[in-house]
Each structure stands twice: as C-alpha cells, then as structure tokens.
Amino acid sequence: MEYRKAKAENAGEIYGLVQATIKAVYPRYYPREVVDFFCRHHNLEHILADIGRGDVGILKEGDQLIGTGSRDGNHITRVYVNPEFQGKGYGSHIIEILEREIGRDYDTVNLDASLPASCLYERRGYRTVKHETREVENQAVLVYEIMQKQLDPAAFGTDVQRGGTDVRAPHMPHNAGTRGEG
C-alpha cells in the first residue's frame, strides 16, 4: 500500500472514486438534492485545481485506488475511500497522513464533516465547534459539523515554528472518511 501525491493523470480516477462513494453512501443520510450538491461540488475541475496546488494524495494498492485525501492549509477538505474498502482503517490512515502534513505548519486541523463522518472524526480526537446547515435546492437542507483538533507538536517530531490556527470562512463539506463519511 502506498500513499503519494496525486498527479493530473490521476484526476479522472479520483473523480470516479469520489462520485461512486457519494452515490453509494450519501443517499442513506441525505435527500437526493444534497447528494447531487456533493456530486456537483466534487467535480473534475475542483479535483484538478487541488492536484495542481499539490493538495491531493492517493492511497493505492498496486493499481487499485483505495482512497484519496486533500487539504487546504490546515483544513482537511476531501477524504474518500472506495466503498469496497471501507471499515478497514484506510480512511483513518489517510487522515493520519494529512494530520502529519498539517502538523508541520499548524497547531490545529479543521474540517467540515457530513453526518456520517462526524463519529469517525470524534474517535480521532476532533470536536464539533459549530453545527451548520445550508439549503441546497427544493428546500433540501445539508446538515454538517465544523470540527477541529488540537495537534501535539511532539507527535510530529518537528521544531519548526508553526503558524497556529488558520481559521477561514467555513468550507462546504467536501471531505469524507471511511464508510463514505464526509
């Protein structure tokens, strides 16, 4: 198993994995309009832009794409695991790698979690700092959590001067963990 930075040629495969995961898992938690919102939000253009900034990683076993993770500063923005591999720790592995990357420069990690993902993140030490909603279309409402985790500088073995918290306006939830959370 290998986690590495994604390249532009991985974009189609990442897009396929993200779309398949959203369509397989999110209908259990959200109405169709919210599922459609997530699909539109995680489009190929957004994925390519994130890859271009060097913010996307992929987890592969041989030629099989297991999952993907993205970040923007200290904000985890997209974690998705192939539904066939969910519940086996791959999402937690991706999150751990992203936390290590973020921990080199920041004291905290922020993320927006969909309803099914919040439990995964709570188990990893995240706490909900705010509940959010967003009406998407046809009066359907997206409900999500803004979560944060304080990082332990010693855990990352770095003496680098770090930048504290990068608090931005809330992102739309565009991360998902194992079991299709996001």
TrEMBL record:
Coiled-coil regions listed in the entry: none
Superkingdom, natural source: Bacteria
Assigned keywords, A-Z: Ribonucleoprotein, Ribosomal protein
InterPro entries linked: Acyl_CoA_acyltransferase (IPR016181), GNAT_dom (IPR000182)
Gene Ontology MF annotations: acyltransferase activity, transferring groups other than amino-acyl groups
Gene3D superfamilies: 3.40.630.30
Domain N-acetyltransferase: 1-152
SUPFAM superfamilies the UniProt entry points to: Acyl-CoA N-acyltransferases (Nat)
Example of a GO cellular component annotation carried by this entry: ribosome
Region spans: Disordered: 162-182
Protein name, entry field: Ribosomal protein S18 acetylase RimI
Lineage, opening ranks: Bacteria, Bacillati, Bacillota, Clostridia, Lachnospirales
